[in-house]
Design a protein that fits this description.
The protein is of the alpha+beta class. The chain contains six helices and six strands; from the N terminus they run αββααββαβαβα. The protein has two domains: 3-98, Arginyl tRNA synthetase N-terminal domain (Gyrase A, domain 2, 2-Layer Sandwich), CATH 3.30.1360.70; 123-189, no CATH class. It is 48% helix and 17% strand.
Amino acid sequence: MNLLSDYQIKIQAFLKKLNSKKIIITPNKFHGLTVELPPKNNKADISCNAALILARLNKKEPFLLAETLKEKLIENFQEFKSIDVAKPGFINITFTSKFWKKHLIKILNFNKRYGSNKNIRKKYNIEFVSANPTGPLHVGHCRGAILGDVLSNLLKFNGHNVVKEYYVNDYGQQLKSFISSVYFRILEIK
């Protein structure tokens, strides 16, 4: 459940519907169509660049094409409260409060599964920490352990197969040298 990718698919399907009605021209395959968060100074909920990528094909200025798309989108998407067009042709959409109530209920129903995307499953091998015992430990080792564990957990949450490798380097000649140096330092202090 991803609001941006869901609406990217919905808007793309809607544009193809407008193409079949001969209102606009769309390519067979969309490249570059995005639905994303608008800039911080914009009060819309989502922003779409459809008019920018379809302007050349439709032989129209992006801003004018965006105005046409604005009318059609408002007519067909009941959840859109308002649509503003920003230069050079971005379509900025604001949802109704009724939509947000339904969306929040969906999020609550997902419970702990909200945010996971189990469509693509891959194998990952995450190696982290690997502190050198002959040198001093520092905050970076702790940070590496936390980041490695969190990254592994996020990948598992999304359904990936993850193998964690947490190395301590507690054997071999390095550790023997470290123990010897600590031993001799203790003797020197006493």
